[in-house]
């Protein structure tokens, strides 16, 4: 990991960048269009300030959270990201072990380069959720869901922000086109072939209803940005929502996730937990999201940077850094647990 081990998530990115094939770095780092939303996700956290409470005698804070698909030792989950074997030969196996070591939940991407069964087998201590792009062929979708269930995944995270793939200029310019020979999306195997992931504009709420009938797993809808969709998600039996703009990789010019979180939390009215991802780069970002009503957050790129910088140990270090930072920030905010955070503790600073 270089002369001095990286000590912040931004340092992990710098090390990862130096190690990755530039085309792969472009794929992981890039966003859609002019990357307005990609930048906005991080910048919006920078415009918020935390206002601590004092003299509460809170003691050492508890960082754990309970969610529909299980408990996590910290309120930071591993967001689903594709193609981990581009970052490290062990790929998703390493990520899952890192998640298990820090006691958090890994959301395994449907586009993982290690099969979900194998990810579960090599990290028996990990709590895994499975991310799904509903495929127009519902029989195949059901087969994938069955694999996730049989592997022991405890929630289904259905990504709903991708009726088409985002237009990713940086990815194109960096020369990333496809997985190299020898790697494929192992969760898309179907007999002797590997199916391509279809992103279809025909997927609708009806498909969520069908999924609800197919599986007893809690369904988390990932990619909700509009309060009306948050209410529809409740009508369709979602067990949780994940406010996400796909890390700025789908429609450019959508708002930063932290800026829409309060509206979604209000729309949901406490009926189900609301999670958030996009632009979380340190412990105080986590606290800001939790104070504004998120039950937990997820990180995408930072885990990939950890993986590229130092394999399983690097990914574990990234998660551990976040856990330590969250605990420290909670202490300085006078909180005994994440439940003590509330909206009055966040201000717009400029
Ligand atoms: C390289 C990369 C691959 C991703 N692959 C998926 C995926 O397969 N499924 C999915 O639902 N989201 C995917 N995402 C989106 C992430 O789950 C998450 O929404 C986003 O990374 C959060 O932003 P952050 O990277 O700023 O933490 C991907 C994101 C990145 C950066
Ligand atoms: C392979 C892609 C479908 C994964 C993805 O969602 C992404 O790159 O953002």
From TrEMBL:
Keywords: Flavoprotein, FMN, Oxidoreductase. The keyword Iron does not apply. Residues 1-350 form the FMN hydroxy acid dehydrogenase domain. Its cofactor is FMN. SUPFAM superfamilies: FMN-linked oxidoreductases. GO terms for molecular function: FMN binding; oxidoreductase activity. FMN binds at residues 80-82, 109, 131, 159, 222, 244, 277-281, 300-301. InterPro entries: Aldolase_TIM, Alpha-hydoxy_acid_DH_FMN, FMN-dep_DH, FMN_HAD, FMN_hydac_DH_AS. The active site is at 246 (proton acceptor). Glyoxylate binds at residues 27, 133, 168, 246, 249. The keyword Oxidoreductase applies. One of its GO terms (cellular component) is cytoplasm. It comes from the Bacteria. Belongs to the FMN-dependent alpha-hydroxy acid dehydrogenase family. This is Alpha-hydroxy-acid oxidizing protein. The lineage of its organism: Bacteria, Bacillati, Actinomycetota, Actinomycetes, Streptosporangiales.
């Amino acid at each position: 990991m270089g002369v001095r081990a990286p000590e912040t998530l931004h340092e992990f990115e710098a090390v990862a960048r130096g190690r990755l094939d530039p085309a792969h770095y472009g794929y992981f780092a890039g966003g859609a269009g002019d990357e307005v939303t990609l930048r906005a996700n991080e910048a919006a956290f920078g415009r918020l300030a935390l206002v601590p409470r004092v003299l509460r005698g809170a003691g050492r804070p508890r960082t754990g959270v309970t969610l529909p698909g299980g408990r996590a030792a910290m309120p930071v989950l591993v967001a689903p990201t594709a193609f981990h074997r581009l970052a490290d030969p062990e790929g998703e196996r390493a990520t899952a072990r890192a998640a298990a070591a820090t006691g958090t939940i890994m959301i395994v991407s449907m586009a993982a380069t290690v099969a979900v069964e194998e990810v579960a087998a090599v990290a028996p201590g990990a709590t895994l959720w499975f991310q799904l792009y509903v495929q127009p062929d519902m029989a195949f979708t059901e087969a994938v869901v069955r694999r996730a269930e049989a592997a022991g995944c405890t929630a289904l995270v259905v990504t709903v922000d991708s009726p088409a793939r985002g237009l990713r200029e940086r990815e194109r310019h960096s020369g990333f086109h496809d997985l190299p020979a020898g790697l494929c999306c192992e969760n898309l195997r179907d007999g002797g072939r590997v199916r391509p992931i279809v992103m279809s504009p025909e997927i609708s709420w009806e498909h969520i209803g069908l999924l609800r009938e197919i599986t007893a797993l809690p369904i988390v809808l990932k990619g909700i940005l509009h309060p009306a969709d948050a209410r529809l998600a409740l009508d369709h039996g979602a067990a949780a929502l994940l406010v996400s703009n796909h890390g700025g990789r789908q429609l450019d010019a959508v708002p930063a996730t932290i800026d829409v979180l309060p509206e979604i939390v209000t729309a949901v009215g406490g009926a189900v937990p609301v999670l958030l991802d996009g632009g979380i780069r340190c412990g105080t970002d986590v606290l800001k999201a939790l104070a504004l009503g998120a039950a937990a957050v997820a990180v995408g790129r930072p885990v990939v940077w950890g993986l590229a910088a130092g394999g399983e140990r690097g990914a574990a270090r990234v998660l551990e850094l976040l856990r330590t930072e969250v605990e420290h920030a909670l202490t300085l905010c006078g909180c005994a647990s994440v439940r003590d955070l509330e909206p009055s503790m966040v201000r717009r600073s400029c």
